[in-house]
Every structure is written in C-alpha cells, then in structure tokens.
Design goal:
By secondary structure, the chain is an all-beta fold. Among the domains are: 240 residues; 87 residues, Immunoglobulin-like (Sandwich), CATH 2.60.40.4070. Helix content is 1%, strand content 42%. The chain is built from one helix and 57 strands. The longest helix is centred in the N-terminal third of the chain and has 7 residues. The chain is globular and about 75 Å long. InterPro entries: Beta_helix (IPR039448), FlgD/Vpr_Ig-like (IPR025965), PbH1 (IPR006626), Pectin_lyas_fold (IPR012334), Pectin_lyase_fold/virulence (IPR011050), Secre_tail (IPR026444). This is Right-handed parallel beta-helix repeat-containing protein. Pfam families: Beta_helix (PF13229), FlgD_ig (PF13860).
Length: 545
C-alpha cells in the first residue's frame, strides 16, 4: 500500500534560541551546581570534559542528595556523552528536576546513581518539564530516568542502557506524566516491571525510532520484559522491541488495566516469557485496547508450562485491530497443548485484516471463551496444528505459502511472486483493494532484517535537535530513484540532498544547515522529505545553533 504524505503549510513562529549569559565549569565555577546557583532563566551552563561528583545538594524536605538541581529555563550542556560525566558515586541522584520548567540537558553522561527512594540518573518530578538530548544515562542502580507527578520529558538521541530499577529499568513515566522519546536505545536494563520502559498511572508515552532490546524482568510474575503499560497510553512508532525476557507476562510488551497501545511500523522479535503460565511471548494485552498497523511479530516464545500466545495473547481486550501485520515463526514450548502459537484470544474478538499468520507453533489463531475474531484478506498458512479461522470469515482469506524472502535468516519480506504481494491475491488483483498482505512490501535483498524497518522506507536523523550538522539515515527495500530534500514550514525547498538512483539498503546524507546557495539557514523547525518508488515520507527536525 502506497503512503502519500502531503506537507501542508504550517504556520509556526520560529525564534532562534536567545542565550543569556554563559557559565563555564570547572573554570571559573568549580562545580555544576555553583554555576546553576549563579545563573538565571535563559542562561547556558557549559561543562568541560571531566567527572563531576559533587553529591551534596538536596531539595528539602527530600533528603536524597544530587549532583545537580537545575532551575527553570536553563540549558546544561556537556562536552559530549562519555566526556562530561556526572557520577554521584552510588550515593544519590545525578540530576534532580523538581518543580522546574524548560530545562535542557544535553551532551553528557549520567552514571552510578543510587538511593533507596527515587534516585535514578535523572529525576524529573512534580510538574517539571525537561528536554534531554544526546545523553548517555547508563549503569545506574535505581533506574535511568524517572518522569513523575504531572511532569513532561522530551528525550532525544539518548542511550539508556544497563540500568537496574525497582520498576522501569531504563525509563519510568508515572503519575499523570508525559514523555516523547525519539531515536533512543534502551537496552539491557533490569527491573521487576517494565524491564526497558514502564508507563503507569494515567501517563502517556510517544516512542519513535527507538531500540528496546535485551531488557529483562528479574522478579517472579513480573510483566513487560521490554515495555510495560499500566492504566496508561503508549504510541510506539518505527521502533524495534527485540530479545527481551519476562519471568511473567509479555516478553516484549505488556499492556494492562485499561491501557491503550498503538503500534505502527514496529518489529517485535525474539522476545520470550520463561515462567509457567507466562502468556504473550511477543505481546500481552489484558483488559486494554490494542491497534497494530504494519507490524512484524516474529520468533517470540513462551517457554513455561501452561503458557500460550507465542506472538500475541489477549485477555478481555477490546477493541483490538490488526492491519497489515505479519505473525510468523512464533513458538510455544508446551508439549501437550500448543494453542495459539501466533495469536491466542480469550474473551477477545479482534478485527484482523490484510495480514500474514504463518509458520507458528500450534494454531495460527486460537479462540477461547467465546472469542469471535473477524478475519479478512489474511493468509493463514503452515501453522503447526491448525490454519482455520475460529471466528468470522469476512472474505478473501486463503492458505498459501507467503514466500518469505529468507525465514532462516529472519528476512520476513516476501518475494515479488508471493500471493501476499500487492495485486497478487489468488482471488484476483483487485481483491483486498489490490493491497499487500503482511508487514512487508514485496522484494527481497540479501541483508538480514534491520531494526524497525517494516515498510519500503526507514527515515530518521541523528542528532535531532542539532547545532552544526545532522545525518539523515534512510533504508530502501527496493532500488530506485531517490529524492531527499529539506523544506521549511511553508513547504519551500531549502536544500536538495539527494537526487539520483540508489540501490536497496541503508544510506546516509549529511546536512550542514546550509541552503542550496551555500548560505547558513536560520535556527528553527525544518522538514525532510524522502521520495522513492512512488512513496513519500516526511520527518521533522530542529536546528538550534
């Protein structure tokens, strides 16, 4: 299915950041906090390379100490992640934002934070607003970042790895809070709930172009090896959730207790539950709503006795909508009863359309306790025990080999001759509006599946926001003519970066914040448009020199 994104003129007042004074650390200000105490809103704290461990500051009545307690409206900028290091020496928090707004934290590392109560690397609490750019928040023992109590965080191009927490190993968003996370890695974090990411208590998250991999639930009956959503809303876009483990429910993602989960163009791969009665190797939805579009759910497993739903397990979940998704090669280790290797439904009646459910253990779709899915335009093939539709057959379903490009190497694209390719439906090219079935456009390459690429295009830029240059990354699943250009908010072209034919695969192009004439552009919001093979995608970037 072709996607056409039309850029409509957007009227935005753009102003270049107007720095006030600059306060440099360690000369003349010996500590970061001494510079903060001398600064006012609009000022810049510029920190040289080095390790900063001045763990002496508190926000009464809270007695937990921190290295830095920002004031509203300041920017705290290091010399780069791995160069400027905030290390509280396992005696408190790294950075504590308490009741402050418009704080920017960028280009630094926060590590080795720990205390008994809410002592992550970065704490954003009680109506605070903070933006975190290009930071490494890793190896903390009470969580990487916590956003709590009606607070808001914008987290861009950060590494949040190898943290241990009481809940939300890498990132926790709690108590009516909001987080936008873009271009980040959350990997190898550990906690009893939400190994990589926890969103709970009426909070909202929008996660895009992120890698949430190899996180772990370390407590019996925990939930959400990669992500756990509890009474909250999560939108996950163009991201991968891979090789996460739960000693309970939801190896990859769990959503529970009236949550809403919206997945678009995501890859859920290689996740597992290990405990007995641990349902949902890839995804677990309990009394929640779930929307999935263009998602790939592959090689997920449930390993314990009595565990079901290798790919997806739904209990009392409504509404559930699955469109153009692929569920393949998911596994159930239960020897006696292999129900729902692909999808297991319990008191749940989803709508499933234009999808592929193939080569899973047990049943492709298993219906229990009166579940009646409505299934249309779907290929259900090669599942170990059953390929039938246990609900309502709404038409144009079939059971034929989808012709995956190379399933042994996890390339779940489809051959151009696949019956699931656009226009190849066995009932005629016009069936299902001539659209493809499953998460992949037809066409195979020699490369193993990469990241969260589930359509013909992958598009992102790093860093974003940027001050000097930014690199646009894009992957093509097909060779063809490519146009990549920068436009302003009115749609006027600023710079053409690429205008030529390129082979399939990953490509990059650097923009130096200059226009076609070679003149520097003004700070502000820009869009970059990638067009190839009749498809266009648009992304937003911010230039803040």
């Amino acid at each position: 299915m072709k996607r056409h994104l039309v850029l409509i003129a957007v009227f935005i007042i753009i102003t270049a950041p107007a720095w006030g004074d600059t306060f440099t650390v360690p000369v003349p200000y010996p500590t970061i906090q001494s510079a903060v105490d001398a600064a006012s809103s609009g000022d810049l704290i510029l920190i040289d390379a080095g390790v900063y461990s001045d763990i002496t500051h508190t926000v009464p009545p809270d007695t937990t100490r921190s290295v830095v307690i920002p004031i509203s409206g300041i920017t705290i900028r290091g010399a780069g992640a791995g160069l400027t290091i905030i290390d509280p020496l396992h005696q408190g928090r790294g950075i504590h934002c308490e009741g402050v707004t418009d704080v920017v934290i960028e280009d630094l590392t926060v590590t080795d934070a720990f205390a008994q109560v809410y002592a992550p690397g970065i704490l954003i609490r009680n109506n605070s607003t903070a933006t975190i750019n290009n930071c490494d928040v890793s190896n903390n023992d009470d969580g990487g970042i916590i956003v709590y109590g009606f607070s808001t965080a914008y987290i861009n191009d950060c590494t949040i790895n190898e943290n241990v927490a009481k809940q939300g190993g890498g990132l926790a968003v709690e108590e009516d809070s909001y987080a936008e996370v873009t271009g980040c890695e959350l990997s190898r974090n550990i906690s009893p709930s939400g190994g990589g990411l926890l969103i709970k208590a009426r909070s909202t998250g929008i996660i895009s172009f992120c890698e949430i991999n190899e996180n772990e639930i370390d407590f019996p009956n925990g939930s959400g090896g990669g992500i756990n959503v509890i009474t909250s809303d999560l939108t996950l876009l163009d991201s991968e959730v891979m090789n996460n483990t739960s000693d309970g429910t939801g190896g990859g993602i769990a959503c529970r207790d009236e949550s809403t989960l919206d997945l678009q163009r995501c890859r859920i791969h290689g996740n597992s539950t290990t405990a007995a009665y641990g349902p949902g190797g890839g995804l677990f939805a309990d009394y929640s709503s779930l929307t999935m579009v263009d998602c790939l759910v592959t090689r997920n497993e449930v390993e314990g006795d009595g565990s079901e739903g290798g790919g997806l397990f739904c209990l009392l979940a409504s509404p559930i909508s699955i469109t153009q998704c692929t569920f393949a090669a998911n596994k159930i280790w239960e020897e006696e009863e292999n129900f729902g290797g692909g999808i297991y439904l319990d008191f749940t009646s989803p709508t499933i359309t234009k999808s592929i459910i193939a080569n899973n253990d047990g049943y492709g779709i298993y219906c229990y306790n009166g579940s009646v899915p409505v299934v249309s335009c779907t290929d259900i093939y090669g599942n170990l025990d059953d390929n039938s539709i246990c609900g309502t057959d709404a038409g144009d379903n079939f059971s034929l080999d989808p012709l995956f490009c190379d399933m042994p190497t996890d390339n779940f694209g489809i051959e151009t001759t696949s019956p699931c390719a656009a226009g190849n439906h066995p009932n005629g090219g016009g069936a299902c509006n001539g659209d493809r079935l499953g998460a992949r456009d037809a066409g195979c390459t020699d490369s193993v599946e990469e990241g969260g690429v589930v359509t013909g295009l992958f598009l992102a830029n790093r860093p974003n926001p940027f001050r000097t240059t930014t690199t646009v990354h894009f992957q093509l699943n097909k060779a063809g003519a490519v146009g990549l250009r920068i436009v302003d908010v009115t749609g006027r072209q600023v710079r053409s970066l690429v205008n030529r034919s390129l082979p399939a695969g990953m490509h990059t192009s650097v923009w130096d914040a200059k226009d076609d004439a070679g003149d520097p552009v003004a700070s502000g919001v820009y869009f970059y448009l990638l067009t190839t093979n009749g498809e266009t995608q648009t992304r937003r970037m911010v230039y803040a020199r």
